[in-house]
Amino acid sequence: MRIGVDLGGTKTEAIALGEDGEELIRRRVPTRRETYEDVVDTVAELVVSIEHELGADATVGAGTPGAISPASGFIKNANLTVLNGHPLDRDLSTALGREVRIANDADCLALSEATDGAGAGHRTVFAVILGTGTGGGVTVDRSIVTGPNAIGGEWGHNPLPWPTADELIGPDCYCGQRGCIEKYLSGPGMAADHERITSVRMSPPQIVAAARDGEPGAEATLERYSDRLARGLASIINILDPHVVVLAGGLSKIPELYEEVPARWGKYVFSDQVDTPLVSAAHGDSSGVRGAAWLWE
C-alpha cells in the first residue's frame, strides 16, 4: 500500500493507493500553518489515521510547494513559507519512523499523469499547475527530472517570452524579479491583469463567464491570457519538445484554452509543424496527491 500526501497552502490531502493504483481511502484537512511543527504533525496524524483505518502499514510520499535544496537539505522556494529552511523529509521520517520521500507538488502532478493519467504512454511529459502559482514538472520514462539545483520544470519564474511593448517591464514577483510568467498566468495574475486594464476587480471564473457573455473587457483579458500561455508553453516546447503537455489547477478548467493555445503557439515554436498535444489532467485536483504516492513506484 502507498500513501501520498499533498501539502497545500490551505488544505492538506492524503490518499492511499492499492498495488494497482486503485484509491482505497482519502482524507482532507485544513493546513495548520502557524508553525513548521504544525505541518509535520498534520502529515503524521493523517498517515497514522489512514493506516489505522485500513489495518496496514504503507510507504509514504509527500508533495510540497518548493523543493529540497541539494545544497542544504532544507526546503526552499515554498509559498507555504513555514516550510522553508527546514529538513522536511528528515523530520517526517523521524515522526513516522520510516523513510518519507518528498518531491515538488508539480513534479508529483507530472509523475501521476505519466503513470496512469493523461500522459500515460508518452515518454516525456511536461505538466503545469495553473492556480495560485504556475508550477511545472517534467518526467521522462515515468521518472521525475529534477537536476542539480532541484528546479526542473520551474518555468513560472522565467520572463514572459516574446513580450509586447506594455509587457517589457512587467509586475514585480515575490522571487525578486519582474515580469515572471507566474505574474501573468496564475489565477491572481489573470485577475490583476484584468484590473490593470479595465479598473474592474473580478475573479478568474467571473472573467471567463463575462467573456462568454460577450463583455469586451473580459474577452480581451481571456485573449491576452491565451496568447501568453501559448508563448510560455512554446518556449518549453522549443527547449524540451515534450510528447505531451498536461494542464492542472483551477485555470486548466477553462475549455477554451485547449483550442486557443495550440492555435496560437505555432507562431512561436521553432518548427514547421507542432504535433504536441495539450490535454487536461486525467486525475484533476487529485493528481498531485496520487503522484506523491507513486514516489515509491
Keywords:
single chain, 297 residues, alpha/beta, Nucleotidyltransferase, domain 5, 2 domains, 5-stranded mixed sheet
**Tally of helical runs:** 9
Taken as a percent bin, the fraction of beta residues is: 15-25%
CATH topology of the largest domain: Nucleotidyltransferase, domain 5
- Approximate helicity band: 25-40%
Strand order of the largest sheet: 3-2-1-4-7
Dominant shape: globular
Tally the beta strands. 12
Quick structural summary:
The protein is an alpha/beta fold. The protein contains nine helices and twelve strands.
How do the strands and helices of this protein lay out in sequence?
Layout: E1 2-7, E2 11-17, E3 23-30, H1 36-54, E4 59-64, E5 67-68, E6 75-76, H2 88-96, E7 100-104, H3 105-116, E8 124-129, E9 136-140, E10 143-144, H4 182-185, H5 187-198, H6 204-212, H7 216-240, E11 244-248, H8 257-265, E12 278-280, H9 287-293
Parallel strand pairs: 1-4, 4-7, 8-11, 11-12
Antiparallel strand pairs: 1-2, 2-3, 5-6, 8-9, 9-10
Please provide a written account of the structure.
- With 297 residues, this protein is of the alpha/beta class.
- Strand 9 (136-140) and strand 10 form a beta hairpin.
- The protein is 36% helix and 19% strand.
- The chain folds into two domains: 2-104, Nucleotidyltransferase, domain 5, CATH 3.30.420.40; 118-281, ATPase, nucleotide binding domain (Nucleotidyltransferase, domain 5, 2-Layer Sandwich).
- The strands form three sheets. Strands 3-2-1-4-7 form a five-stranded mixed beta sheet. Strands 10-9-8-11-12 form a five-stranded mixed beta sheet, sandwiched between helices.
- The protein is globular and about 55 Å long.
- Helix 1 (36-54) crosses helix 2 (88-96), helix 3 (105-116) packs across helix 9 (287-293) and helix 5 packs across helix 7 (216-240).
- It has helices at 36-54, 88-96, 105-116, 182-185, 187-198, 204-212, 216-240, 257-265, 287-293; strands spanning 2-7, 11-17, 23-30, 59-64, 67-68, 75-76, 100-104, 124-129, 136-140, 143-144, 244-248, 278-280.
